[in-house]
Amino acid sequence: MSPNVCIVNFYNDSGRLGLHQDRDESKERLEKGLPVVSFSIGNSTEFLYSDVRDVDSAEKVILESGDVLIFGGKSRHIFHGVSCIKPKTAPQLLNDDANLRPGRLNLTFRQY
């Protein structure tokens, strides 16, 4: 059985991540198209995705706190990235009660 891995990224309000493909798993795992599962917590973000590595032609979707993004199968190899973080968009509860630092916490699960 292959291990499951959680990658934790924190983006401050000026955080970004250029378009890229996740290709650090084994060839066998990549060929299976096993899904990537990503949880967003905190500020909203503008998430980009495309079949090619071109920011100008990339589709955009806003991911809000609590959103889950899953891509697998043929979509497993899409180019994806974060173009911007939307400041002060986190649920007030996260700031007041959980004392979460301003920004976006992303938990990404993959099977290696």
TrEMBL record:
Cofactor, free-text remark: Binds 1 Fe(2+) ion per subunit.
Keyword RNA-binding: no
UniProt xrefs under PROSITE patterns: FE2OG_OXY
Residues binding Fe cation, per UniProt: H20, D22, H80
Keyword Oxidoreductase carried by entry: yes
Domain of life, per lineage: Eukaryota
Keywords in alphabetical order: Dioxygenase, Iron, Metal-binding, Oxidoreductase
Cellular component GO terms held in the UniProt record: cytoplasm
GO molecular function: broad specificity oxidative DNA demethylase activity; ferrous iron binding; oxidative RNA demethylase activity
Cofactor: Fe(2+)
BP-aspect Gene Ontology terms: oxidative RNA demethylation
Domain Fe2OG dioxygenase: 2-112
Pfam families: 2OG-FeII_Oxy_2
Family: Belongs to the alkB family.
PANTHER family assigned to the protein according to its UniProt record, in alphabetical order: ALKYLATED DNA REPAIR PROTEIN ALKB-RELATED, NUCLEIC ACID DIOXYGENASE ALKBH1
Name this polypeptide is given: Fe2OG dioxygenase domain-containing protein
Source organism of this protein record: Vanilla planifolia (Vanilla)
Phylogenetic classification of the source organism: Eukaryota, Viridiplantae, Streptophyta, Embryophyta, Tracheophyta
